[in-house]
Design a protein that fits this description.
The chain is an alpha/beta fold. It contains eight helices and nine strands. It has a domain at 3-150 and 175-203 and 258-265: Rossmann fold (3-Layer(aba) Sandwich). Helices cover 42% and strands 21% of the residues. The protein has a seven-stranded mixed β-sheet with strand order 3-2-1-4-5-9-6. Strands 7-8 form a two-stranded antiparallel sheet. Helix 3 links the parallel strand 2 (67-72) and strand 3 (93-97).
Length: 267
Protein backbone atom coordinates (compact mmCIF):
# COMPACT_ATOMS: atom_id res chain seq x y z
CA UNK A 1 0.00 0.00 0.00
CA UNK A 2 1.45 3.32 -1.09
CA UNK A 3 1.03 6.45 1.02
CA UNK A 4 -0.68 8.32 -1.80
CA UNK A 5 -3.44 5.66 -1.85
CA UNK A 6 -4.40 6.49 1.73
CA UNK A 7 -6.78 9.45 1.71
CA UNK A 8 -6.49 10.23 5.44
CA UNK A 9 -3.58 12.43 6.50
CA UNK A 10 -0.81 10.57 8.33
CA UNK A 11 2.30 11.51 10.25
CA UNK A 12 2.39 13.46 13.48
CA UNK A 13 -0.57 15.66 12.43
CA UNK A 14 -2.75 12.60 11.95
CA UNK A 15 -1.87 11.23 15.39
CA UNK A 16 -4.30 13.57 17.18
CA UNK A 17 -7.23 12.12 15.27
CA UNK A 18 -6.09 8.56 15.96
CA UNK A 19 -5.93 9.23 19.71
CA UNK A 20 -9.52 10.47 19.71
CA UNK A 21 -10.63 7.58 17.50
CA UNK A 22 -8.96 5.05 19.78
CA UNK A 23 -10.63 6.47 22.87
CA UNK A 24 -14.03 6.26 21.18
CA UNK A 25 -13.51 2.71 19.92
CA UNK A 26 -11.70 1.27 22.97
CA UNK A 27 -14.75 -0.13 24.84
CA UNK A 28 -16.21 -1.99 21.85
CA UNK A 29 -12.83 -3.16 20.56
CA UNK A 30 -11.79 -4.59 23.94
CA UNK A 31 -15.13 -6.38 24.21
CA UNK A 32 -14.62 -7.79 20.70
CA UNK A 33 -11.14 -9.04 21.53
CA UNK A 34 -12.44 -10.81 24.62
CA UNK A 35 -15.18 -12.52 22.59
CA UNK A 36 -12.60 -13.58 19.99
CA UNK A 37 -10.50 -15.22 22.71
CA UNK A 38 -7.64 -12.78 23.35
CA UNK A 39 -5.83 -13.95 26.49
CA UNK A 40 -2.47 -13.94 28.33
CA UNK A 41 0.44 -15.58 26.56
CA UNK A 42 -0.72 -14.96 23.00
CA UNK A 43 1.49 -13.67 20.19
CA UNK A 44 -0.52 -10.98 18.39
CA UNK A 45 -0.27 -8.61 15.45
CA UNK A 46 -2.06 -5.28 15.15
CA UNK A 47 -2.11 -4.68 11.39
CA UNK A 48 -2.23 -1.02 10.39
CA UNK A 49 -1.43 -0.09 13.98
CA UNK A 50 -1.04 3.67 13.47
CA UNK A 51 0.08 5.30 16.70
CA UNK A 52 -0.13 2.04 18.64
CA UNK A 53 -3.09 2.64 20.96
CA UNK A 54 -4.72 -0.73 20.32
CA UNK A 55 -1.33 -2.49 20.34
CA UNK A 56 -0.81 -1.13 23.86
CA UNK A 57 -4.18 -2.54 24.95
CA UNK A 58 -3.30 -5.90 23.40
CA UNK A 59 0.07 -5.87 25.18
CA UNK A 60 -1.70 -5.53 28.50
CA UNK A 61 -4.11 -8.35 27.63
CA UNK A 62 -1.39 -10.85 26.62
CA UNK A 63 0.82 -9.86 29.56
CA UNK A 64 4.58 -10.33 29.96
CA UNK A 65 4.40 -13.93 28.75
CA UNK A 66 2.84 -12.76 25.46
CA UNK A 67 4.04 -10.52 22.64
CA UNK A 68 2.49 -7.92 20.31
CA UNK A 69 3.79 -6.68 16.96
CA UNK A 70 2.34 -3.46 15.54
CA UNK A 71 2.74 -3.13 11.77
CA UNK A 72 2.21 0.00 9.67
CA UNK A 73 3.65 1.79 6.63
CA UNK A 74 3.91 5.21 8.35
CA UNK A 75 7.33 5.44 9.98
CA UNK A 76 6.48 8.72 11.71
CA UNK A 77 3.58 7.14 13.58
CA UNK A 78 5.64 4.02 14.31
CA UNK A 79 8.38 6.08 15.95
CA UNK A 80 5.78 7.91 18.04
CA UNK A 81 4.38 4.52 19.06
CA UNK A 82 7.83 3.23 20.06
CA UNK A 83 8.41 6.27 22.23
CA UNK A 84 5.00 5.93 23.84
CA UNK A 85 5.54 2.22 24.54
CA UNK A 86 8.73 3.19 26.38
CA UNK A 87 6.86 5.81 28.42
CA UNK A 88 4.17 3.26 29.29
CA UNK A 89 6.86 0.71 30.20
CA UNK A 90 5.49 -1.90 27.82
CA UNK A 91 8.38 -4.18 26.91
CA UNK A 92 6.27 -6.86 25.19
CA UNK A 93 5.29 -4.75 22.17
CA UNK A 94 7.33 -3.83 19.10
CA UNK A 95 6.57 -1.82 15.97
CA UNK A 96 7.64 -2.69 12.44
CA UNK A 97 7.38 -0.80 9.16
CA UNK A 98 6.00 -3.18 6.55
CA UNK A 99 3.84 -3.38 3.44
CA UNK A 100 1.08 -5.75 4.49
CA UNK A 101 0.15 -6.50 0.88
CA UNK A 102 3.48 -8.29 0.34
CA UNK A 103 4.24 -11.91 1.36
CA UNK A 104 6.33 -12.35 4.47
CA UNK A 105 5.33 -13.76 7.84
CA UNK A 106 4.41 -17.43 8.09
CA UNK A 107 2.65 -19.17 10.96
CA UNK A 108 3.83 -16.81 13.70
CA UNK A 109 0.72 -15.32 15.34
CA UNK A 110 -2.13 -16.56 17.53
CA UNK A 111 -4.27 -13.50 16.84
CA UNK A 112 -4.21 -10.81 14.15
CA UNK A 113 -6.32 -7.67 14.50
CA UNK A 114 -7.01 -4.91 11.97
CA UNK A 115 -9.23 -1.88 12.47
CA UNK A 116 -10.23 0.45 9.61
CA UNK A 117 -7.53 -0.98 7.35
CA UNK A 118 -9.22 -3.08 4.64
CA UNK A 119 -11.45 -0.18 3.64
CA UNK A 120 -8.37 1.60 2.24
CA UNK A 121 -7.04 -1.29 0.16
CA UNK A 122 -7.70 -1.93 -3.50
CA UNK A 123 -7.39 -5.67 -2.95
CA UNK A 124 -8.41 -6.53 0.63
CA UNK A 125 -8.46 -10.20 -0.36
CA UNK A 126 -4.67 -10.13 -0.64
CA UNK A 127 -4.09 -8.92 2.90
CA UNK A 128 -6.54 -11.48 4.29
CA UNK A 129 -4.53 -14.18 2.50
CA UNK A 130 -1.37 -12.79 4.14
CA UNK A 131 -3.08 -12.82 7.54
CA UNK A 132 -4.22 -16.40 7.05
CA UNK A 133 -0.65 -17.44 6.26
CA UNK A 134 0.73 -15.54 9.26
CA UNK A 135 -1.55 -17.30 11.77
CA UNK A 136 -0.72 -20.55 13.51
CA UNK A 137 -3.32 -23.35 13.20
CA UNK A 138 -6.15 -22.43 15.55
CA UNK A 139 -5.29 -18.74 15.31
CA UNK A 140 -7.99 -16.08 15.00
CA UNK A 141 -8.30 -13.00 12.79
CA UNK A 142 -10.29 -10.05 14.17
CA UNK A 143 -11.40 -7.34 11.75
CA UNK A 144 -13.25 -4.08 12.41
CA UNK A 145 -14.22 -1.92 9.47
CA UNK A 146 -16.71 0.67 8.37
CA UNK A 147 -19.92 1.02 6.44
CA UNK A 148 -19.47 4.74 5.86
CA UNK A 149 -22.93 5.31 4.44
CA UNK A 150 -24.31 4.33 7.87
CA UNK A 151 -24.06 7.79 9.44
CA UNK A 152 -26.88 9.52 11.29
CA UNK A 153 -27.28 12.77 13.23
CA UNK A 154 -29.88 14.90 14.96
CA UNK A 155 -30.82 17.54 14.11
CA UNK A 156 -30.10 17.38 10.39
CA UNK A 157 -26.66 18.74 9.43
CA UNK A 158 -26.03 19.47 5.73
CA UNK A 159 -22.27 19.73 6.37
CA UNK A 160 -22.27 16.17 7.70
CA UNK A 161 -24.05 14.88 4.61
CA UNK A 162 -21.53 16.63 2.37
CA UNK A 163 -18.64 15.23 4.43
CA UNK A 164 -20.01 11.67 4.12
CA UNK A 165 -20.33 12.15 0.35
CA UNK A 166 -16.81 13.56 -0.05
CA UNK A 167 -15.24 10.85 2.08
CA UNK A 168 -16.84 8.06 0.08
CA UNK A 169 -15.93 9.62 -3.27
CA UNK A 170 -12.31 10.15 -2.18
CA UNK A 171 -11.88 6.53 -1.11
CA UNK A 172 -13.57 5.14 -4.22
CA UNK A 173 -11.29 7.20 -6.46
CA UNK A 174 -8.41 5.21 -4.96
CA UNK A 175 -10.13 1.96 -5.92
CA UNK A 176 -11.05 1.13 -2.33
CA UNK A 177 -14.39 0.56 -0.57
CA UNK A 178 -15.63 3.02 2.08
CA UNK A 179 -18.58 0.71 2.83
CA UNK A 180 -16.69 -2.58 3.09
CA UNK A 181 -18.18 -3.55 6.45
CA UNK A 182 -21.05 -5.78 5.25
CA UNK A 183 -18.64 -7.62 2.91
CA UNK A 184 -16.33 -8.70 5.73
CA UNK A 185 -17.91 -12.08 6.63
CA UNK A 186 -17.83 -13.26 3.01
CA UNK A 187 -14.25 -11.98 2.58
CA UNK A 188 -13.10 -13.94 5.62
CA UNK A 189 -14.90 -17.07 4.45
CA UNK A 190 -13.34 -16.80 0.98
CA UNK A 191 -9.89 -16.47 2.58
CA UNK A 192 -10.40 -19.82 4.30
CA UNK A 193 -11.40 -18.74 7.81
CA UNK A 194 -13.86 -21.00 9.64
CA UNK A 195 -16.73 -20.34 12.06
CA UNK A 196 -16.88 -16.68 10.97
CA UNK A 197 -18.77 -14.44 13.40
CA UNK A 198 -20.21 -10.94 12.94
CA UNK A 199 -21.47 -8.04 15.05
CA UNK A 200 -22.32 -4.37 14.41
CA UNK A 201 -21.56 -1.42 16.69
CA UNK A 202 -21.95 2.32 16.28
CA UNK A 203 -20.60 4.67 18.96
CA UNK A 204 -22.73 7.81 19.27
CA UNK A 205 -23.42 10.50 21.82
CA UNK A 206 -24.44 14.03 22.67
CA UNK A 207 -21.12 14.84 24.39
CA UNK A 208 -17.50 13.75 24.26
CA UNK A 209 -14.93 12.61 21.74
CA UNK A 210 -17.37 10.79 19.46
CA UNK A 211 -18.73 14.13 18.28
CA UNK A 212 -15.24 15.23 17.16
CA UNK A 213 -14.63 12.30 14.81
CA UNK A 214 -16.42 13.91 11.85
CA UNK A 215 -14.64 17.30 11.87
CA UNK A 216 -11.28 15.70 12.62
CA UNK A 217 -11.68 13.26 9.74
CA UNK A 218 -12.87 15.98 7.36
CA UNK A 219 -9.70 17.91 8.20
CA UNK A 220 -7.65 14.76 7.62
CA UNK A 221 -9.07 14.13 4.13
CA UNK A 222 -8.98 17.79 3.06
CA UNK A 223 -5.78 17.42 1.00
CA UNK A 224 -7.15 14.41 -0.90
CA UNK A 225 -10.52 16.10 -1.52
CA UNK A 226 -8.89 19.25 -2.90
CA UNK A 227 -6.28 17.31 -4.89
CA UNK A 228 -9.03 15.31 -6.61
CA UNK A 229 -11.06 18.51 -7.21
CA UNK A 230 -14.07 17.15 -5.39
CA UNK A 231 -14.48 20.43 -3.52
CA UNK A 232 -12.72 23.78 -3.33
CA UNK A 233 -10.47 24.74 -0.45
CA UNK A 234 -13.05 27.32 0.61
CA UNK A 235 -15.83 24.74 0.71
CA UNK A 236 -13.69 22.31 2.68
CA UNK A 237 -12.88 24.99 5.25
CA UNK A 238 -16.58 25.83 5.55
CA UNK A 239 -17.53 22.16 6.05
CA UNK A 240 -14.88 21.71 8.74
CA UNK A 241 -16.01 24.86 10.57
CA UNK A 242 -19.67 23.80 10.46
CA UNK A 243 -18.85 20.29 11.68
CA UNK A 244 -16.92 21.68 14.65
CA UNK A 245 -19.78 24.07 15.43
CA UNK A 246 -22.26 21.19 15.28
CA UNK A 247 -20.05 19.02 17.51
CA UNK A 248 -19.75 21.77 20.11
CA UNK A 249 -23.46 22.58 20.18
CA UNK A 250 -25.09 21.07 23.30
CA UNK A 251 -27.58 18.33 22.58
CA UNK A 252 -26.61 17.58 18.99
CA UNK A 253 -26.08 13.88 18.23
CA UNK A 254 -22.73 12.85 16.77
CA UNK A 255 -21.60 9.37 15.82
CA UNK A 256 -19.08 7.12 14.15
CA UNK A 257 -19.98 5.46 10.88
CA UNK A 258 -21.49 2.02 11.33
CA UNK A 259 -18.73 -0.46 12.29
CA UNK A 260 -18.88 -4.15 11.40
CA UNK A 261 -16.91 -6.54 13.62
CA UNK A 262 -15.96 -9.89 12.07
CA UNK A 263 -13.76 -12.69 13.35
CA UNK A 264 -12.89 -16.23 12.30
CA UNK A 265 -10.39 -19.04 12.85
CA UNK A 266 -7.68 -20.81 10.87
CA UNK A 267 -8.23 -24.53 11.36
Amino acid sequence: MEKHEYVIRGGARGRKRLRVLSRVMQPTTLDLLRRAGARPGMVCMDAGCGGGDLAFDLARIVGPEGRVVGVDFDEVKLELARNEAHVQQLSNVEFRKADLTKPGLQGEFDLIHARFLLTHLRNPEEILDRMFAALVPGGVVVIEDIDFQGYFCYPECPALRRYVELYQRSVRLQGADPCIGPRLPSLLASAGFQNVQMNVVQPAGITGDVKLISPLTMEAIAEAVIRERLASEAEVEEIVAELYEYARTPGTVGCMPRVVETWGWKR
